[in-house]
Amino acid sequence: MKFMKLGSKPDLFQSSSENTRYVAAELATDIIVNVCNVKFYLHKFPLLSKSGRFQKMMTISHDENAIEIDLHEIPGGPGGFEICAKFCYGMTVTLNAYNVVVARCAAEYLEMHETIDKGNLVYKTEVFLDSSIFRTWKDSIIVFQTTKSLLLTSSSDELKIVNRCLDSIASKASMDPCKVEWSYTYNRTKSENGNETPLYNGVRKQVMVPKDWWVEDLCELPVDLYKKVITTIRGKGKVSLDVLGESLKAYTQRRLKNGGDDVKIRSLIETIMFLLPKEKTSVSCDFLIQLLHESVRLDCGETRRRELGQRIGQQLQNALVSDLVNLDVDLVQELVKIFMMQDQIADNGDEHGFLEFTDLAEIVSTLPRISHDGIYRAIDTFLKEHPGMSKIEKKRVCRLMDCRKLSSEACMHAIQNERLPLRIVVQILFFEQIRAGSHWSSRSGTTNTEEEWDSVPTSEELKSLKGEFGSLRIKDGGNGNRKAKGMVMSTRILSKLFSSKDKDSDNESSETSGSPSPCSTNVREMKSNSGSRSRRRSTS
Known about the structure:
The chain is an alpha/beta fold. The chain has 26 helices and 9 strands. Helix content is 54%, strand content 6%. The chain starts with a strand and ends with a helix. Belongs to the NPH3 family.
């Protein structure tokens, strides 16, 4: 840290109580200066020799009683005034990054200019700021933090100190990393880990500074100051958007880790949302999901939630299961819908959209859920938007849905859905009939072969099956509380539907099989179990 020593006389300021400061000297004091709740017992002459304000406020008096004046509005309060007073006495004062702004603003208030005395405090502090503080990364940040003091805000703004701090910090953050030598967090982390620069032919080579070297350094700033810094850095236009995104992520995670009340966290989320670059690739998907989770938890409003949802949906293919587990299932389904409806899929062609959709749907389908109605709606929307998909692609998409977890309402919609492969429709019909007859038990079964997926019933058979199922639904009223009697589907139709593969498999072309489907349960085994249960009931 840079510093500047002023004066040479010893420090004679002492305290007689918590709120009293005086100069220990043989000459009696002749002026009392009240600053906030502190009284300073001083001598008029040193103050008059350096301060234009004191010259205006005081008149020469021969009275024995000391003059008493108030300076409650001086920037920096008692501390700022004491620095100026010591300078007036010629006592040793050490300026550094923590007190130079206080001294500069207080000196301006007391009018300690060159017109009063050469080499006055205003001049000294300006030289120190320009020649040392604003040339140093660490000191620029410290000085900027000191401007947050309530009594310094207006004065530092008038002196352009805040803007000068911002320009210093932003300029250094915008520099080419190969020219950076003074990142204090980067160097400190390196030394703490014991990582010395490597030797090459006996010569120690300087490790290249990463382009986001400054990110961690700004995490100590309060939210309002951080907002000003990032806005200034973006305004210079020399820092890549991905580095800005990393800065926002690091700052948010540090603040959330430190905790705080919901009001402060809500303010943080609002600020970060304001600072997010508009380009969709500038911020990682996991960070956006984290912001969405916090905004929903804190009820930041529908506008914020919708804005984040749109951004996440544009790059949801980059999400991991671990990123989504903390979100509500309905919210995840909404993100999937946004992802599918984005223009990028249509612009990039069906094949590209299909690869992205299947990857994403596989992630979503692994999340624990009781119902797969949302996945069915997503698949149906995707099939509607991509009518030119091949049979293989349709089968791969539909494998991501567990037909056993569809509600009765979703089943009724699906069996009338001509966009679904007929084989899927048949399986949905079968599972719904088993559930209707109370024959279904929740267990995992073996998967069908590729030929079972390819073999489909005739349109007449499917129509008959739909009609029979639909009539059962009407009789039952669709309430799901069916009795076994009168609910058993035609064994002849089901047998023919699922045995048709044996007749047609020789005439079908071979296709590359995909991953097993949760909906592809061995129907023969289920039929056999169902039949055996029927026989047991008939003989009992």
